[in-house]
Amino acid sequence: MKNRTFAIAGTLFVLLGLAGFVHPRILMPGKQDDVRVGDQRMIVETRRVVTIPPILSGFFVLAGGGLLFVSARQA
Q1: How far does CA 8 lie from the centroid of its chain?
Q2: Measured distance CA(56)–CA(71) in Å, rounded
Q3: Whose CB among 17, 18, 28, 29 lies 3.0–4.6 Å from 61's, allowing a Cys bridge?
Q4: Conformational region of residue 26, where left means phi above 0, alpha means psi within -120 to 50, and beta covers everything else
Q5: In this model, does residue 57 exceed pLDDT 90?
Q6: Which of 63, 65, 53 shows the shortest CA–CA distance to 24?
Q7: CA-to-CA distance for 41 and 18, rounded, in angstroms?
Q8: CB atoms within 10 A of CB 28
Q9: What is the pLDDT, as a whole number, of residue 37?
Q10: Residue 64: in which H helix or E strand, if any?
Q11: What pLDDT, on the 0 to 100 scale, is given for residue 64?
């Protein structure tokens, strides 16, 4: 049971790391504000862009590989 948990966690870490390399920018919704100018109403929406550093993606790939290695050695 412990091997399977390590294998699943390792696979998820590797996939997260690869996703960070492929698509390092993530758009996150911000907030919406209603602005009234006279009798007109406008909706102002802001978005945040979060950039994942390549070193963090590499760490996830290496950590996932290590977990997969440990799970294969225990089997």
Answers
A1: 17
A2: 22
A3: 17
A4: beta
A5: yes
A6: 53
A7: 43
A8: 8
A9: 81
A10: helix 54-74
A11: 96
First to last CA, the chain: 10
Strands (E) across 2-75 are located at: 25-37, 40-51
Q: What does the alpha-carbon distance between residue 69 and residue 1 come to, in Å, rounded to a whole number?
A: 16
- What single-letter amino acid sits at 8? I
Report the share of the chain in percent with pLDDT over 70: 97
For residue 40, the cross-strand partners are 37
**CA 18 to chain CA mean position, Å:** 10
Which pair of structure tokens corresponds to residue 8? 């699943």
CA atoms within 13 A on the CB side of 22: 7
35, 44 Cβ separation under 8 angstroms: yes
Residue 14 has pLDDT above 80, yes or no: yes
